[in-house]
Structures are given as structure tokens and as C-alpha cells.
Design a protein that fits this description.
With 222 residues, the chain is mostly helical. It is built from nine helices and no strands.
Length: 222
């Protein structure tokens, strides 16, 4: 059995954790803004909805439907030229952010649209009947009513990003995935693998706990 060297492992684990958190945070912030905006636009431009525009809706819907089924590993490889143009390199923590943000953006857009569609149509009709303009109905009634479920949806995306960063580590992005591959799998060091898995579990559990509490707080305010 290989000796366990905590003095050597802990600094590597700490560095990998920070790299993973950097990838998650950067990509999520970008995706949350873009994804929610796209989701709102999808909802508003649906046929028969507040800002009915079949052309815009069809274009956005098609783009999202094309991107969503593509495996993340293929997306991150396909975006290497774009990543090099934006960042100057295709290797490293920052290089994984464009692909992570793209995947998360389309997922958030669909989640946001679904939550907005689930808002009681009677509430929307009541706002319109009171003379509120479509944008006002959208931003003062529809979006606030969907914030609780949307928060849970965003929490799910953060958890999915944790998994995606592990995959990104396999193609040179660093983070916990790279640590597990380089020092765990390739060196047959089970302890490194266990340490990485436990760290990922802790990240996911804390993220889910925080998301649940924020969602409850938002719903109570409503």
C-alpha cells in the first residue's frame, strides 16, 4: 500500500479546490446573467405571450436546443480556437470558463423559461387587466413570482458545474478533476481519489444547503 503523505497532498488539494471554485464562480456569474436574460426573452416572445415574436423565439429556441444535447467534453474541445482568441491559451483554469459558461447559460435559459411559464396565468392576466404594460407585468409580477423555483434551478446548475469542472480538469483546466487524474488515477493512489471525491461531495452539499435556504427566504418574502 502506498504511504499517505498528507503534507504533500494537502497543498495540492487546496490549490485544486481554489481552481475548481474559481471555474465554478466565474462561469456561473456569467451564465446566470446571460441565461436569465435569455430565459426571460424566451418566455416573453413565446407565441401569444407578452411580447409575442415568433422569429426571435424560434431563433433562440433552436440555438438552445442545438447546444444542450452536445456533451460537455466535445464543447470544450470545439471551443479551443475561441478560447485561445479570448484568453490567449486553451490550457488552465481561465481557459475552461468560456465552455463552462456556454453550457450553463443554455441550461439556465431553459430553466428560467420553464419557471416563468409555470407562473399562474391568472396573475399575469390580472396585471394586464389593471393596465400594466407588458414589460411591467414581466418585471413586477412574472419574474418575482418565479424567484423561488428559479433559485433552486440555479442551485442545480452550480452542482452541475461542479461535475463539469471535473471533466474540464481532464483536458488541462486544472482543479480537482486534474488532481484526481494526475495524482490519483495515473499513480493508482486511492487516497487522493477518495480525498477528491469527498471534497466534491462537501461542495455539492454546501451548495444545495445554501440554495435551499435562499429559495425558502425568497418564497417567504413573497
Amino acid at each position: 500500500m502506498r504511504d499517505i503523505d498528507l503534507d504533500a497532498l494537502l497543498p495540492k488539494l487546496g490549490t485544486a479546490l481554489l481552481e475548481t471554485l474559481q471555474m465554478i464562480t466565474s462561469s456561473f456569474l456569467i451564465a446566470a446573467v446571460l441565461g436569465v436574460l435569455l430565459g426571460v426573452l424566451l418566455y416573453a416572445t413565446r407565441p401569444g405571450n407578452l411580447l409575442d415574436n415568433r422569429v426571435v423565439f424560434a431563433a433562440l429556441n433552436t440555438v438552445i436546443n442545438v447546444i444542450r444535447p452536445i456533451p460537455f467534453i466535445i464543447i470544450i474541445i470545439a471551443l479551443i480556437p475561441v478560447t485561445r482568441a479570448l484568453i490567449g491559451t486553451s490550457i488552465g483554469t481561465s481557459a475552461a470558463v468560456p465552455a463552462l459558461a456556454l453550457v450553463a447559460t443554455v441550461a439556465i435559459a431553459r430553466i428560467a423559461e420553464s419557471n416563468l411559464v409555470a407562473v399562474d396565468p391568472g396573475t399575469v392576466d390580472a396585471g394586464a387587466a389593471m393596465g400594466a404594460s407588458p414589460p411591467r407585468v414581466l418585471f413586477t409580477i412574472v419574474i418575482p413570482e418565479s424567484l423561488g423555483p428559479l433559485t433552486l434551478g440555479l442551485t442545480y446548475i452550480v452542482v452541475a458545474l461542479v461535475d463539469a469542472t471535473a471533466v474540464a480538469g481532464l483536458v488541462g483546466a486544472g482543479g480537482l478533476g486534474s488532481l484526481a487524474l494526475t495524482y490519483g488515477y495515473q499513480r493508482f493512489d486511492w487516497f487522493v481519489m477518495v480525498a477528491v471525491v469527498l471534497t466534491l461531495i462537501v461542495i455539492v452539499q454546501l451548495t444545495q444547503l445554501a440554495g435551499n435556504r435562499i429559495a425558502r427566504a425568497v418564497q417567504h418574502q413573497r
